[in-house]
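Supplementary notes (optional reading)

For those who missed the lab, this is the record we used. Protein: Ring-cleaving dioxygenase. Length: 316 residues.
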Amino acid sequence: MTKKTAGIHHITAFVKDAQANVDFYAGVLGLRLVKKTINFDAPEVYHLYFGNESGSPGTAITFFPWATSRKGRIGGGQVGIITFAVPQGALPFWKERLRKLDVSFRETERFSETYIQFQDIDGLELELVERAEGADSKWSFGGVPADKAIKGFGGAVLYSLNPESTMHTVEHVMGLTRTAEEDGLVRFVSEGDIGNVVDIKKDEVPHGSGGSGTVHHIAWRAKDFEDHEDWRDHVQTNGFEPTPVIDRQYFNAIYFREAGGILFEIATDPPGFTRDEPFEALGEELVLPEWYEPHRATIQKGLPPIEVRVLEADKQ
């Protein structure tokens, strides 16, 4: 029997400026900074997580802000567009908000849905779509009230170097269902109610290059630690070479690169972001794993100060 993921767990991208990243995703988009930690593999770099009120699976977009990083190029072997879901009837609010904040956008349609597409400050391609399914966010910040707030991921558009192989992996390894085809895109849907719609370009996309403004990896959901071990066996049985299980503090992870060049992760839903901070204080302090605690002073000294702040335009 084919295993089936509930959908996207998180998406991680490279950016340059940490404060500008916070200003955009918390200030403009109204997401909650739920965790301020470091890249465990490069402790001189932040790892920032934004999501709904708790950063629940399917809502968390994460970033490695690296001031000296090169500019990336979006292309094959990457997530091309990140889709966020908003409540039904919320797109007029978001169009007005983006205009107010001088964020250029365009309106488009695919698969009978209306999207507004725009870029963040690093050039990441983003879009908003109204969806009825998925729990509404309870988080309100700046000029974004909870009833208009981003719920989490609507999904993503994948750019592949080998589209047939990527589509086979998404359908037959990750367990999504192929539901429609239109204008050179094929749609796949998972069983979850958030982060559950993935569109894949049918034609090969020229190779992208990593750097600021590009996605590093897309993570899929495993329901618990036992399920995660099963996923590792399942991926390996299907001819891939997954990494050993890695403890990322807030989830366990395995990684593998599918044949179209996109780095896939499978991450556990538990334990979540409240394992080392109370819900009320999520994202307020720099949190380090225990093996880095002896080096806290040195690490903090090397990181730029950041703060979650209301944009000036929202104070007027």
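If you only remember one thing from this example: The chain has one domain: 8-315.
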